[in-house]
Design a protein that fits this description.
single chain, 337 residues, 12 helices, Diaminopimelate Epimerase, Chain A, domain 1, inorganic pyrophosphatase (n-terminal core), 2 domains, 12 strands
């Protein structure tokens, strides 16, 4: 953030505001962690923010402090609409285009509120009065820490804030193993531990609360794994029938795509998940090295994200989608070596 942006934010927060904080649709640990951390911080400054999630999020995130601050737009529709319509200041976290919010998109587009964007994805839109965008950051949670620091508010970082920020950084860095994890990231994490974040407890709450059904579903996913050695690529498919058979709950497939990258010689991993309710195949892309899955997703699957982690979608069957996907790989053969 530059000095002008910092001054603008301080001016906006110097008076009472009707504040709403929005994550992207299907929010993950970074989205929920950053929104709750920011909500806790703003409360500590005398504001009264609310978080509105476009839809539900995984059970393994619902233990986070003050999870009850979050409205689920699908279940609390009228209250959420009223809050957005009356908002004077809206923070959008972990996304940079209204289309990432699903049903909230028209409400946000129609809002007369001031917007503040905090995000680390590529190609940000221009809707915000203040845009804090940095694609080199490990996570939006690390950016929220920097945001708080820029506002001279680190003394207000409580155990609850530290817990939320640590959770988001941990999940978005693959437990600190991705290239985006810098020495600064580790210094931030150390400060959060000093502020009360219990790293072992957080890890257990996120990663060690599996149901038997989820582990059985993982077994199905790994059984469906297809390896394309010629292209250093592996992909997984999961049909709606397979999800239903194993009592799928939101978040159950989190991290499945990464198993492909644990194979020796694999540089590109993908998972295709059927969602009959939305009529789409949801796709997650992961890569190692310089191969940009952000560009791949944007060019071929109506998606985008980061260089090494991205998402997309298809509106044809899994069989047609994977056939199309495989047909594309010859064009990227040299990049995938």
């Amino acid at each position: 953030m530059n000095s002008t942006d910092i001054a603008t934010v301080k001016s906006l927060l110097a008076k009472p505001q009707k504040i709403v904080i929005i994550p992207h649709k299907n929010p993950d640990g970074d989205a929920i962690g950053s929104c709750l951390a920011l909500a806790h911080f703003l409360k500590a400054t005398g504001q009264n923010p609310m978080v509105i999630a476009p839809n539900d999020y995984p059970k393994f995130l619902k233990w986070l402090p003050s999870d009850n601050l979050i409205y689920n737009f699908e279940h609390q529709n009228s209250q959420s609409k009223k809050l957005i319509e009356e908002a004077t200041l809206i923070f959008t976290l972990d996304f940079n285009h209204f289309s990432r919010t699903g049903q909230l998109e028209p409400l946000l587009a129609a809002s007369k509120a001031d917007f503040i964007m905090i995000d680390h994805h590529q190609q940000p839109d221009t809707y915000a009065r203040v845009t804090y965008s940095d694609v080199n950051m490990s996570s939006t949670c690390e950016m929220v820490y920097n945001f708080i620091e820029a506002l001279d508010g680190t003394d207000k970082i409580s155990k609850d804030i530290a817990t939320c920020l640590y959770t988001g950084i941990m999940t978005d860095t693959g437990s600190f193993k991705y290239y985006s994890t810098t020495s600064k990231t580790h210094r931030v994490v150390a400060n959060l531990i000093d502020k009360g974040a219990e790293n072992m407890t957080i890890h257990q709450q996120v990663f060690d609360t599996n149901s038997p059904a989820r582990l059985h579903l993982l077994g199905v996913a790994l059984n469906n794994l297809k390896i394309l050695e010629e292209y250093n690529t592996a992909y997984i498919t999961l049909s709606q029938e397979e999800l239903d058979k194993h009592n799928y709950s939101k978040g159950d497939t989190e991290g499945f795509v990464n198993y492909g990258l644990t194979l020796e010689g694999i540089n590109f991993a993908v998972i295709f998940i059927e969602n009959k309710e939305e009529g789409i195949i949801k796709i997650s892309f992961r890569s190692i090295g310089e191969f940009s899955v952000n560009e791949f997703a944007r060019n071929h699957f109506n998606g985008g994200g980061h260089t090494n982690a991205s998402g997309g979608r298809s509106e044809v069957s899994i069989a047609e989608t994977t056939k199309y996907f495989e047909s594309l790989l010859e064009n990227y053969k040299l990049q995938l070596q």
